[in-house]
Automatic annotation (TrEMBL):
Superkingdom: Eukaryota
InterPro entries per UniProt: EOBI/EOBII-like_plant, Homeodomain-like_sf, Myb_dom, SANT/Myb
One annotated Gene Ontology cellular component of this protein: nucleus
Protein name as annotated: MYB transcription factor
BP GO annotations: regulation of DNA-templated transcription
Length: 224
DNA sequence: AACACCGACAACCGCTCGGGG
DNA sequence: ACCCCGAGCGGTTGTCGGTGT
């Protein structure tokens, strides 16, 4: 009959994971509805697909989002909005679900602290004025600590984005963007973004300290 | 020690899109 | 041109562990 009673929901067991992993390893991805039929799993095709993509798939990265990944997420989100799967393409090993959760739990929390909507111009400005420059500073600091820079770091003023009212199309942080210029809204070749700099988490991934009382006061002063 | 609260993550649900008949 | 179905995407909810009281 195939009633809803036959469909199992909730957390996956090790046995289910094993069955799914074995099937996909042998037969490849796709045809998710037949996965459930072939393996005897009482899960929907959707559920199988999600479990594979978000948990079982090889080369998944686990653990904290690094500073570089944070910066990339902020930059890509400013470009594509809530296109999580698109953003995830540029963060190898990270899933769209993970990025989405990161955004909802961390970024939206910061917006709440500033009493503004995460999609508002005000919060975008806050990201440009404080968050992203601080991230860039910390990434550069971490990088220069590992290997001496070829040239002296720029003065802090260079890292500060232009004022709110100015043209935002070429803000400073975008000039310092780690997104190659050939990556546009309809990017086709993303290969040079995949793999490389994020290997090895030698940096403190927590960003809570970026959003200090001082920074919040600074922003509230500007917004008032 | 027990309880309440909160944050992070896993999983589900509904909608949309694209391909095949 | 239309319909159906599978796959993918984004929003939402559920669960669990950690922390504060």
């Amino acid at each position: 009959m195939g009633s809803d009673d036959d469909v199992k929901k909730g957390p996956w067991t090790a046995e289910e994971d094993s069955a799914l992993y074995t099937y996909v390893t042998v037969n490849g991805e796709g045809h998710w509805n037949s996965v459930a039929r072939s393996t005897g799993l009482k899960r929907t095709g959707k559920s199988c697909r999600l479990r594979w993509l978000n948990y079982l798939r090889p080369n998944l990265r686990r653990g904290n989002i690094t500073l570089q990944e944070q910066l990339l997420i902020l930059q890509l989100h400013s470009r594509w909005g809530n296109r999580w799967s698109k953003i995830a393409e540029f963060l190898p090993g990270r899933t769209d679900n993970e990025i989405k959760n990161y955004w909802r739990t961390r970024v939206q929390k910061q917006a709440k602290q500033l009493n503004c909507d995460v999609n508002s111009q005000r919060f975008r400005d806050a990201m440009r004025l404080v968050w992203i420059p601080r991230l860039v500073e910390r990434i550069e600091a971490a990088t220069s600590a590992q290997s001496p820079p070829l040239q002296p770091p720029p003065p802090p003023s260079l890292l500060l984005p232009p004022c709110i009212a100015t043209d935002t199309s070429t803000s400073t942080w975008e000039q310092k963007s780690i997104i190659p210029e050939n990556v546009s809204g309809s990017c086709s070749d993303t290969s040079d973004l995949r793999g490389g700099w994020w290997e090895g988490d030698g940096v403190d991934s927590s960003f809570e300290s970026l959003w200090t009382e001082e920074n919040i006061c600074f922003l509230q002063h500007i917004f008032s």
